Amino acid sequence: MSNDKTVLVGSLQKFSVEDGPGIRTTIFLKGCPLSCRWCHNPEMIDPKQQLIQSPNNCIGCGYCIKTCPNDAITMNPETGIVIDRDKCGVCLSCAKECYAQALRPVAKEMTVDEIMAVAEQDRGFYDNTGGGITLSGGEVLMHTEIAGAIIDKAAAKFIKVCLDTSGFGDPEEFFALAKKDNVTHILYDMKSIDDDVHKEYTGVSNKLIIDNLRMLAADEDTASKLVMRMPLIAGVNDSEEIITKTGELYKELGISRVNLLPYHSLGMSKERNVGGQQEEFQEPSEERLNEIEKYFADECGLTVEIFGRV
Ligand code: SF4
Ligand code: SF4
Predict the structure, then answer these.
(1) Ligand 1 centroid vs 60 CA: distance in angstroms?
(2) CA-71 nearest atom, ligand 2
């Protein structure tokens, strides 16, 4: 891979504590083959660059309106600027003119060396806490070449890496990344074991995801790195049938860890800010969450962690 190859990076989030062990820098790579209807980072789904608004930052100066070559921006006296996304060609001229940062590109083109220069700044925190970097997205498996290069550069600096993935990617390329010595954890985000539910709510079948999970579970080395993750959305994937079948599959594959991620609605405003609209879901009740936790822990022998519990 040439050194000047770039990837669109949504953000390099420092001091992450829920994306693997210890303190980590999470690298969000833009582009995902799934389109989960509850996605909490919907601005990371489209592999192409996008313009994102932060309406609260807008000071109403109007510079963006004057600079837009496509007349895609108008001012609504009540609600502030309005972008006609059909006219917008994502030239980003408006973002350059917007000193208030109310308009920005979603992501930045970065080389592997540029990414690593930022990630290495927190090297001391990784060493002291058992942390490292986490490759997330979007979907890291859409960027296996770049991801491989980041992992190899991290290995040369003795930095450990965690993959945060939906498991939807080319099996050989996924396996090659998973086998790398400094990849210590694979956060494997399976949304629903029921394929009809999976298709309806993520846009793709779960077959490849389950096949890839079986592949990693069959190899002693990659199996030891697996931590399952499950977003929990009331009325979508928290039914007794789905939870039981999920637990049975995990038992069959010898999986020992699961993280539960109850739904939150943070994706709705982000989706609005890139010109879309996301429906609202509900998190499971506290009682249902406790039942699911108990089932996975007591019946399936899993170590269960719940993130974002209120
Ligand atoms: S340039 Fe930025 S601050 Fe000024 S009107 Fe446009 S969005 Fe608002
Ligand atoms: S990014 Fe879109 S809205 Fe902004 S100046 Fe370019 S065409 Fe206009």
Answers:
(1) 5
(2) 8
φ and ψ at 108, to 5 degrees? -125, 135
What token pair was written down for 299? Answer: 């019946």
CB 181 within 8 A of CB 155: yes
Cβ neighbours of residue 86 under 8 Å, at least 6 residues apart?
none
- Domain of residue 137, CATH code: 3.20.20.70
- Residue 47 region by backbone torsions, left for phi larger than 0, else alpha for psi between -120 and 50, else beta: alpha
Going by CA atoms, what residue is nearest to atom 3 of ligand 1? 58
Q: Report yes or no: 169 and 212 within 8 Å, Cβ to Cβ.
A: yes
Same domain, yes or no: 272 and 192: yes
Same domain, 120 and 94: no
Along the 310 residues of the chain, how does pLDDT read in single tens digits? 777 899 999 999 999 999 999 999 999 999 999 999 999 999 999 999 999 999 999 999 999 999 999 999 999 988 899 999 999 999 999 999 999 999 999 999 999 999 999 999 999 999 999 999 999 999 999 999 999 999 999 999 999 999 999 999 999 999 999 999 999 999 999 999 999 999 999 999 999 999 999 999 999 999 999 999 999 999 999 999 999 999 999 999 999 999 999 999 989 999 999 999 999 999 999 999 999 999 999 999 999 999 976 5
Q: What is the rounded distance in angstroms from the CA atom of residue 138 to the CA atom of residue 83?
A: 24
Q: Which atom of ligand 1 is nearest to the CA of 63?
A: 1
Atom of ligand 2 nearest to the CA of 68: 5
Query: Given the CA of residue 91, which atom of ligand 2 is nearest to it?
Result: 6
Let me know whether 76 and 36 are in one domain: no
**Is 51 a pocket residue for ligand 2 (Cβ < 6 Å)?**
yes
Record the pTM.
Answer: 0.94
- In this structure, the answer to whether residues 163 and 219 fall within a common structural domain is yes
Cβ(91) – ligand 2 distance below 6 Å? yes
**Domain identity same for 42 and 61:** no
- In the structure, which protein residues have their CB atom closer than 6 angstroms to any atom of ligand 1? 58-64, 81, 97-98, 100, 102-103
Q: Is 92 in the same domain as 162?
A: no
